[in-house]
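Cross-check.
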Amino acid sequence: MATISLNKEKDSTKKLIELPNDVCRRLAVRAAAMGTSVKKLIENLVISSVEESDDDAIYAYLLETAPEGNEMLSLSEQNSLLDKLRRKVKSDEV
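Predicted model, tokenized:
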């Protein structure tokens, strides 16, 4: 099933979220007081929240949960890799 996007910005993503009714009512009142739509208010709140986030904390979290490429090779693994690369270079020279 194809989805048609009405976003004028190519650099955006649509997300469907569910919020409790009381939260939606409060957001509607707050948006009305600010003279904006609930959608625009939520977008601005999320964007400002992300901009205020601490990049160092995010990086530390990623290192803990997905340490891909951050583990040192043991000496035997290093030697094995070097041997493999040397064999490859020699076979390419021939």
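The CA atoms of residues 55 and 61 lie 10 Å apart. Residues 75-93 form the longest helix (19 residues). Passed to J.P. for a second look.
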